[in-house]
Specification:
four-stranded antiparallel sheet; five-stranded mixed sheet; Immunoglobulin-like; 9 strands; globular
Length: 119
C-alpha cells in the first residue's frame, strides 16, 4: 500500500503536468495530414518524403516523412497548400505524380492522400 501511494504521489503530478502544459495549436492554424498507402485494402507506406509548399509560392514550408502508419502531420497557418511526394520508398511507384492541393482551415485537418503501387 505504501509503495502504491508513493508511486502515485510521484507520478500523478508528472502526468497532470504533462497534460496541463500541452500547448494548444496557435489561433488561425490547422493541420495537414499526408497519408501514404498501397493496395485496395489500404496498407501503409512507410518512409515516403513529402514536401509542402504554399499554392502561390514554390518555397518548401514543411518536409514530412510518413511513419509506420503511413501518415505524417504538420500544423500550418490557414491557406492553400500543395503536397508532393519527393522520395518514393524502394520497390514502390507513385500512382499519380502531380501535387495534391488542399486548403487548411483554422482548427481543422486537411488530408492529402498518396496511393503507391509496391512490389
Amino acid at each position: 500500500m505504501r509503495r502504491t501511494f508513493l508511486a502515485l504521489s510521484v507520478l500523478a503530478p508528472l502526468m497532470v503536468g504533462g497534460i496541463a502544459s500541452a500547448d494548444p495549436a496557435p489561433q488561425g492554424t490547422g493541420s495537414l495530414t499526408a497519408w501514404t498507402f498501397t493496395g485496395r485494402e489500404p496498407v501503409p507506406v512507410n518512409r515516403a518524403d513529402i514536401e509542402v509548399t504554399p499554392c502561390d509560392a514554390k518555397q518548401v514550408v514543411a518536409t514530412l516523412v510518413s511513419g509506420a502508419d503511413g501518415r505524417a502531420t504538420v500544423t500550418l497557418p490557414a491557406g492553400c497548400y500543395e503536397a508532393k511526394v519527393v522520395t518514393v520508398p524502394g520497390g514502390c511507384g507513385l500512382s499519380v505524380t502531380e501535387p495534391v492541393r488542399v486548403t487548411v482551415a483554422p482548427g481543422t485537418e486537411a488530408r492529402a492522400d498518396f496511393r503507391f503501387g509496391c512490389a
